[in-house]
Design a protein that fits this description.
The protein has 182 residues and is mostly beta strands. It has 2 helices and 10 strands; from the N terminus they run E-E-E-E-E-E-E-H-E-E-E-H.
Length: 182
Amino acid sequence: MAKRIPPEVLAQHTVAQSRLFTVEAMDLRFSNGEERTYERMKPSGRNAVMMVPITEQGDILLVREYAAGTERYELGFPKGLIDSGETPFEAADRELKEEIGFGSRKLTPLKEVILAPSYFSSKMTLFIAEDLYSEQLEGDEPEPLEVIRWPLAQAEELLTHLDFCEARSITALLLALRILKP
């Protein structure tokens, strides 16, 4: 297949802005002469991490937290933004301490994923977190997160659990199971 030439960016401008998000319009000209306007979330330059924590007892640790997008409590894995100056490994360890009260001595990267590349550029690095130790850091959540222990041996049952529906958590679980299952 022939190498594709990226479209030429003719113009970029902000079409909407909130405290958290900036929506940007991009006028593009493709190599065949076609022109289109695309809208996307303006890149923030901040990426994120998500961890699949595994205890010595063979349990997966999940969190249940309120999700404004679905207006309900969702079950998923600990996650958060990478702070300025942090590596993904440092952010993963910090987020574990903030969200579930454990640090990890063994972080295994699984994959870097993008939620919806047509609209977002931010990447999330997925990890397995093992060799956990007790340590709590103050987080930025508005209420304490509920930590749920789930037997690793029954991990596939999470795939049909009504509250476990975030695509990134499902992806992290499936990738982790490829490594963790004998």
